[in-house]
Design a protein that fits this description.
Mean pLDDT: 96
Radius of gyration: 20 Å
Low-confidence stretches: none
Structural class: alpha/beta
Number of strands: 18
Bound molecules: NADPH dihydro-nicotinamide-adenine-dinucleotide phosphate
Strand content: 25-35%
Number of helices: 15
Helix content: 25-40%
Largest sheet: 9 strands, mixed
Distance between the termini: 48 Å
Length: 420
């Protein structure tokens, strides 16, 4: 019987909200709050037309302003806040939850909007040298809330999307049921979908393009190995999707898994990209369109990547035109009872099936469903630890059951082809 405050009403949020409405055992009341309240009102209307039993309200909130978020939380008095706005807002919303002593859940690791801000930049450059990876996001900012959340008696669940999120739960599940020791993890994120545009991103363009155009890195023997963007390429034949090119990227769950499973010798993350996507991205980067630094244009300041976002299709609009499937999962090697073992746990999701069910494409779906699951487990007290945690730090079994129940069934293959 929980009262939920959702912040953000974009592609991922719209799935998470509809899935929360399907889970009326846990969620009974919901406030949908975002910068553009008309999107929240449209979602409320859609749910009410479907006969949702939830009591739904909407609100405008500026999640860059901690006082605005605190005011909303004090007015609405939620049991839990689900942040499905952007990673830029993570710390502000965490601060507001701390002030109001309310549980906090998100799907993406904090990163700053302005990566040229001098104080952040100095800390970033120090971290690049010390830790050996140059991604704009790292967990240190959110892990720093551990003691404060513990003292306040609240839970912070970080990164409950698919990757991170489900991939970390797959790792905890593999450890619990299949291995005494895991030695390697390869996380494979394949989108075999086609939206028919020459170039579009499947989730927020700014966040997506920042991630994909950055250096890659992987975790090996307790330290980071960094690569140039797209330097490591492999080809993999994905169940139900087929053969795809995939490239090694830095990804946030590597950092958490490396810390929480020190036995794992190597953790890599690969994502599939078509040649057309890569060619467009390289061209945009070469002409400066991926820059996050403001420039003056005809007397006003614009940020090139934000201008590009305005030109690209809204990821939430890709649903009707995207066909094909995603396959996201993890290949584990390790030992059980003294014998070497290999396990591949993955989910296959069909873009058109997602669209038929909720009006969204599979990338929003595969993120929004786990966002609901993590929030429900925290709200119902099944995942109940005080402090700040990633999804691999709880019992994976109830989460795995809910994946099957809420539209993301998974497969365990005990003789997969390995990635070299
Ligand atoms: P969208 O851009 O579609 O939606 C973001 C939403 O947040 C919009 O409703 C936007 O409002 C709102 N918002 C942005 N800034 C503010 C603000 N200052 N105050 C209030 N609301 C704000 O993004 P997505 O739905 O694609 O992504 C949502 C999150 O999910 C991101 O953090 C992304 O990184 C994460 N993600 C995680 C994945 C995973 O597997 N873990 C995979 C994919 C995404 P407006 O409508 O006004 O723009």
């Amino acid at each position: 019987m929980s009262r939920l405050l959702v912040i953000g009403c974009g592609g991922v949020a719209q799935v998470a909200i509809q899935k929360c409405a399907q889970n009326s055992k846990v969620f009974t009341e919901m406030c949908i709050a975002s910068r553009t309240v008309s999107k929240c009102d449209a979602m409320k209307e859609k749910l009410e037309k479907q006969g949702s039993p939830l009591k739904i309200t909407t609100a405008t909130v500026n999640a860059d302003d901690v006082n605005d978020v605190i005011k909303l939380i004090k007015e609405y008095q939620p049991d839990v806040v689900l942040n499905v706005a952007l990673p830029y807002q993570d710390l502000v919303i965490m601060d507001a939850c701390l002030e109001c002593k309310v549980d906090y859940v998100d799907t993406a690791n904090y990163e700053p909007e302005d990566t040229d801000e001098p104080v952040w930049r100095a800390a970033y450059e120090k971290r690049c040298k010390e830790k050996g990876f140059t991604a704009y996001f790292d967990y240190s900012y959110q892990w720093a809330y551990m003691d404060k959340f513990k003292e306040a008696g609240i839970t912070g669940l970080l990164g409950t999307g698919f990757d991170p999120g489900v991939t970390s739960v797959f790792t905890a599940y593999a450890k619990k049921h299949y291995f005494d020791e895991i030695h390697t993890v390869d996380i494979l994120d394949c989108n075999g979908g086609d939206h028919g545009y020459a170039f579009a991103t499947n989730f927020n363009p700014e966040i997506n393009l920042r991630e994909v155009s950055a250096n890659g890195s992987y975790w090996e023997d307790g330290h980071w190995v960094e690569t140039k963007p797209m330097e490591i390429k492999r080809v993999y034949d994905f169940p139900q999707v087929g053969q795809k090119d995939m490239y090694l990227l830095h990804h946030e769950e590597i950092e958490a898994l490396g810390k929480n499973f020190p036995e794992i010798k190597r953790i890599r993350f690969f994502m599939t990209f078509g040649q057309s996507y890569l060619d467009h991205m390289r061209c945009l980067e070469d002409v400066g369109m991926l820059s996050t630094s403001p420039i003056m244009f005809e007397g006003r300041e614009i940020v090139p990547i934000q201008f590009l976002k305005a030109l690209l299709p809204d990821p939430a609009s890709l649903g009707p035109r995207t066909v094909g499937k995603t396959n996201i999962g993890c290949i584990f090697t390790g030992v059980k009872d003294g014998k070497e073992k290999t396990v591949y746990i993955y989910n296959v999701c069909d873009h058109q099936e997602c669209y038929k069910e909720l009006g969204s494409q599979a990338i929003s779906y595969t993120t929004g469903v786990p966002a609901m699951i993590g929030t429900a487990l925290v709200a119902s007290g099944i995942w109940n630890k005080k402090g700040v945690f990633t999804t691999d730090e709880f019992d994976p079994d109830p989460y795995m059951d809910m994946l099957n129940e809420y539209g993301l069934p998974w497969v365990v293959d005990e003789s997969p082809v390995l990635v070299d």
